[in-house]
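Long-time lurker. I teach an intro course on protein structure, and each term I like to show students one example going from raw sequence to a predicted 3D structure in token notation. This year I'd like something fresh instead of my usual example. Would anyone be willing to generate the tokens for the chain below so I can use it in lecture? Attribution to the forum is fine with me.
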Amino acid sequence: MLMQLGTQPQGPKMGIVDTAKRQLRALQDRTIPQRVVFHHVPKCGGTSAGRALRKRYVLSQATVKPEESFRAYQMFTGRTDREAMLVDVLDLREQMMLYLLADDVRCVSLHVRFSQVAHDHFAERYKFVTLLRDPVARFISHYNWSYQRPGAFGRIEEPLDAFLETDRARLLGATYGEYFSGLPVGADFTGAEAVEAAVANLQKLDVVGRLDDLVGFEAGLRGALGVRIKLGHENKKGAARADHRTEISPQQQARITELCAPDIAIWDRVMGPAA
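-- Reply from a regular --
Happy to contribute to a lecture. Here you go:
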């Protein structure tokens, strides 16, 4: 059968699923046009911040859970060297983040290092934000949370004095270097190179909040995202119930401060030294 002159062949009609997707995308564009990545650094108040962001972006949001991603990595690799895996699994989480950004998920919140690849490809569309905490307080909170915690992939077995002499404690004092330097796995995150790189990368982020000034962090998010985010304390009750509490002696405090020297250097450069 010949087509009439001037007519065009008709494609398949749009199905109900495609129509719903198009309508959802239009609704997202109207209500949450600004996309965001939240770099959740452990024990910096990120649980509450991430949940608040994902609630505001409920139409398009995702997270990568630390426990589940670790178990997935463990199953895929078949490895048993847990301490090395705690570092190597960060590559998997970065890859998962890149997938979510490529899929145009509007709000992505996860324990992930700064990714130059993500920043290069998505900085024009996404705002990159994080929330940090005084390094010594963060170290102590991390130890309290992880000490002999049942089922935790990052649990710490040693009493505090013994732990403070481990390589893992040394790395814990350089968490900001590990998360933001962009240096490869196995690099020295405690050295000057990591400190300088972390400072430079944190300065690329659109909002860097501090846990002791959540009002300021909310204001920064509002300015960057164009939406109001109300931060709660959703993990506070659970943390108070679950944390092991260790009394810190002056000698232990001094040792922790020494271990946290790399993160303190980053904190002072990005946030300004304590008054």
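Some talking points for your students: The chain has a mean pLDDT of 87. The beta strands are 35-39, 61-64, 107-110, 126-132, 207-210.
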